[in-house]
User: Which sequence fits this backbone?
C-alpha cells in the first residue's frame, strides 16, 4: 500500500491504496463532479455539494448497471470474454513489470 496526496474541492486528503495513479484519477473525477454540481447551484456548503455529487455519481453508476444488465446473452458473454482476456493481458504486463522494476 502506498500513500498519495490528492486535492478534492480545495481540500487535501492523504489516501492509501495500491495504485496511486488510479486514486489520483478517481480524486480528479470526484473533484470535477463536485465543481460541476457547485456551478449549477447556489450552495457553498461543501458537504451539500459532496452529497449532491455522490448522488450524481450513484445515478451514473445505476444507469451503467442497467445498461449492462440489459445486454442480451451473446453480447453480455462477448463482453465478459473480452474483459477476461484484457484482465489476463493486464495481469501479465503487470507481472512482467514487477519483475523488471
Assistant:
Amino acid at each position: 500500500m502506498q500513500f498519495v496526496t490528492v486535492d478534492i474541492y480545495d481540500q487535501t486528503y492523504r489516501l492509501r491504496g495500491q495504485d496511486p495513479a488510479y486514486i489520483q484519477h478517481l480524486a480528479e473525477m470526484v473533484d470535477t463532479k463536485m465543481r460541476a454540481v457547485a456551478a449549477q447551484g447556489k450552495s457553498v456548503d461543501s458537504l451539500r455539494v459532496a452529497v449532491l455529487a455522490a448522488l450524481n455519481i450513484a445515478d451514473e453508476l445505476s444507469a451503467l448497471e442497467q445498461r449492462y444488465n440489459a445486454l442480451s446473452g451473446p453480447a453480455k458473454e462477448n463482453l465478459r470474454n473480452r474483459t477476461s482476456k484484457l484482465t489476463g493481458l493486464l495481469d501479465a504486463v503487470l507481472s512482467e513489470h514487477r519483475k523488471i522494476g
In short: Residues 2-70 form one domain.
